[in-house]
Amino acid sequence: MFNQVQRYTHSLAVIIYSFISIHTIGANQMPTQQMKPNQMYELRYKPVFANFTESEFNCLKKQLYLRNYKKGQVLFDEGDKREKLFYLKKGLVRIERYDKSASFLYIDYNNPDTLFPYGGMFSDDTYHYSAYAATDVELYYLPADVFEQQAIYNSEQLLYLYKKVSVILQQQEKRIQYLAVSSATSRIINTLLYLMENLGRHISPKTIEIPFPITINEIADISGCSRETVGSVIKQLKEDQQLEYKHKQFIFLHPSYFKSYSE
Length: 263
Known about the structure:
Layout: H1 2-17, H2 37-44, H3 47-50, H4 54-61, E1 65-69, E2 74-76, E3 84-90, E4 93-98, E5 105-110, E6 114-116, E7 130-133, E8 137-143, H5 144-151, H6 155-179, H7 184-199, E9 201-204, E10 207-209, H8 216-223, H9 227-239, E11 243-246, E12 249-252, H10 255-259
Helix pairs in contact: 1-6, 4-5, 6-7, 7-8, 8-9
């Protein structure tokens, strides 16, 4: 069992450290919408764009577009040319990648108000992951080279991007720490903790909800456990009144319980 956990942790580490973020555009997208003045104003003062000068942002907004995707539609596939950057306005985007043996699946998510991909910025020619809409999504996109040309001579913008990369790396290091344990129960609870921390929002001072559907199979894939084991652990957590799980959505009734597993 311990050797299996070691192999799982090694595969996870290899994939995560080649990861920072992600995404591309598929053939099944909805039609492009024209940007309205109020949408442009809203976007201008988002943190990822706030450090650009007016002249730089004017160059960006000429090539900013808004698109909608239905749940399940592909944004891009691994190996596609890295032509675009995206800013998610609404919904949830799932990213995934198999290792070379096709036996290990890496899964993660991008939630609203997120620019992606950071991975490959200023360097790579292709996307390293596949991405699709986990829910109906609304997002902005623009050519990657246009964004990079405006950012590369702006020291404040580069500093912002550097700090975001640092945060992403910290999240992935924490994920490795959470999942590098031999106990299946601990891995499942730590997977729930990771999702709670990265996708959750407070609906009361002591209660956190993940406002997106997450399936038992996804928890199983992330934690490296069987679907049956995940189902059993979640059933016990519900009986212990630690969480609720309805319509594929998690509500954490006692977040401190889950945090205690990482200490």
